[in-house]
Amino acid sequence: MMTQFNDRKLKNIRQQLRKKNTPETEKILWARIRRRQINGIKFRRQQSIGPYILDFYSFEIDLGIEIDGPSHYLPEHSVHEKQRNQFLAGQTQQLLRFQNSEIYENLEGVLITIQEKVAEILRNEARY
Question: Whole-angstrom Cα distance, residue 113 to residue 102?
Fold first, then answer.
């Protein structure tokens, strides 16, 4: 089964997330990765893959980025998070996850991790 990107049923939710409900950590990271600032790669905000919405995603290199806030670790969300992680692992080449605190306390380290992953993917693609 082919994965559906940008599910029309999720369009309004994605728009609301971008316009009104964007956490501060996502705004901070978005300012540093938008407009091809990371190795010339374009990222999109609030990209749906199947029934789930990723914080950031690049179609060019099939890389997703998630920033996990406190709700990701609540016991009542554990089953949903496990299902989501399993689904996304089967759909994207790579998925980087960062905690909110990493964005606030070590933004440069987060950016280096993203740059290194992007470079690794580009190197691997160049081999083929």
Answer: 11
For 38-103, give the DSSP string.
BTTB--EEEEEETTEEEEEEETTTTEEEEEE-GGGG-GGGHHHHHHHHHHHHHH-SEEEEEEHHHH
CA distance 97 to 7: 23
What are the structural domain ranges in the chain? Answer: 8-126
Give the whole-angstrom CA distance, residue 27 versus residue 83.
Answer: 26
At which residue do the structure tokens 């693609």 appear? 125
The model carries a pTM of: 0.81
Strand 44-49 versus strand 52-58 pairing type? antiparallel
Residue 75 tokens, joined: 């016991």
Q: Is the distance from CB of 71 to CB of 40 less than 8 angstroms?
A: no
Q: Can you give the pLDDT at residue 1? A: 44
- CATH tag, 8-126: 3.40.960.10
Q: What is the mean pLDDT of residues 104-119?
A: 98
Phi/psi at 66 (nearest 5 deg)? Answer: -120, 140
